[in-house]
Amino acid sequence: MTAPDATRPVDVLTVEAIVDVTPSVRRVVLTGTPEAVAAAGPTISLLVPRVDDPAPRWPAVARDGRIVWPTGSHGVSLRSYTARRQDPGRAEVEIDFVLHGDGPAAAWAAAARPGSVVAVAGGGPLGERPAGWLLLAGDETALPAITRILAEAPPATRGVALVEVAGADEEQPLPAPEGVAIRWLHRNGTPPGESTLLADAVAALDRPAAEDLFAWVAAESAAVRTVRADLRGRWGLGRAQHHAIGYWRRGRAMSPTG
Ligand SMILES: Cc1cc2nc3c(=O)[nH]c(=O)nc-3n(C[C@H](O)[C@H](O)[C@H](O)COP(=O)(O)OP(=O)(O)OC[C@H]3O[C@@H](n4cnc5c(N)ncnc54)[C@H](O)[C@@H]3O)c2cc1C
């Protein structure tokens, strides 16, 4: 019989290939067992080892999903990422990292080479719901999720996708149903986390007449708070009609490094 406090090891994935998609987005293709790839997403609790650490001490995962950290220094940071693509058949999972600076995850991605390793503690949903009319609003960090939501949306879906990026060279191909308008918002030199582009763009949208509508929002936390308040207030969206989550916090690491 398994002990109630039994843990399982995390899934370790190995870098297979790296593609610089835009000046600030690095796509890392990871490989692992088909089961590990299937479990790695769409959102991922990613365990990122310190750059140049040849022997990270991975945590384990308890039966209730809790991460059980080794005692003492382990050199591993927990961050949330999105599997832009998961293909258990080819044993591949693809993550787009925004290279924003020297946080553990961005630094790991900048230094990653084929053969580098990272681990997955678990996967979760994106938080979207099927609806006839979709509002998607996010920045570069949300683009992998927006790509996936649009790719999986039924062809008859209508709506708007607002994507804030640094400039034209950060735009990516974004296949979408014909009725979904894609609008790229360029920061044009304003640092990430300091722009009001997303909030302004949402504020300029009238609530669509469709009752069957859903809004999905992810970006820097303060921007998301503003958009969420607008959608709840002016658009009158109830909890079941929106998912608005801060994907990162300006000036703050997402969690401590061990
Ligand atoms: C569910 C979920 C899914 C996510 N998916 C993705 C994804 O697919 N791709 C992706 O790149 N990110 C994604 N993110 C965001 C990512 O987790 C954060 O950007 C995270 O802070 C990166 O960790 P780090 O170790 O590089 O930096 P941290 O140690 O967390 O932060 C260090 C410093 O960098 C700053 N910082 C963090 N992110 C950014 C940024 N994007 N631009 C500018 N400054 C920043 C912080 O404010 C802080 O000052 C996701 C977040 C969530 C919650």
Q: Would you kindly provide a written description of the structure presented here, covering whatever features stand out?
A:
By secondary structure, the chain is an alpha/beta fold. It has two domains: 7-124, Translation factors (Elongation Factor Tu (Ef-tu), domain 3), CATH 2.40.30.10; 133-248, Nucleotide-binding domain of ferredoxin-NADP reductase (FNR) module (Rossmann fold, 3-Layer(aba) Sandwich), CATH 3.40.50.80. 17% of the residues lie in helices and 38% in strands. The chain is built from five helices and 14 strands. A six-stranded antiparallel β-barrel has the order 2-3-8-7-4-9. Strand 10 (133-139), helix 3 (143-152) and strand 11 form a beta-alpha-beta unit. The longest helix has 13 residues, at 221-233. It starts with 6 loop residues before the first strand and ends in a 10-residue tail after the last strand. The model has no long low-confidence stretch (mean pLDDT 95). The protein binds flavin-adenine dinucleotide.
Which helices and strands, and how do they pair?
Blueprint: E1 7-9, E2 11-22, E3 25-31, H1 34-39, E4 43-49, E5 60-62, E6 67-68, E7 76-87, E8 92-98, H2 104-111, E9 117-124, E10 133-139, H3 143-152, E11 158-165, E12 179-186, H4 197-203, E13 213-220, H5 221-233, E14 242-248
Parallel strand pairs: 10-11, 10-13, 11-12, 13-14
Antiparallel strand pairs: 1-5, 2-3, 2-9, 3-8, 4-7, 4-9, 5-6, 7-8
Helix pairs in contact: 4-5
The structure holds flavin-adenine dinucleotide (FAD).
Flavin-adenine dinucleotide (FAD) is lined by residues 43, 77, 79-82, 95-98, 100-101, 103-106, 141, 144, 192-193, 247-254.
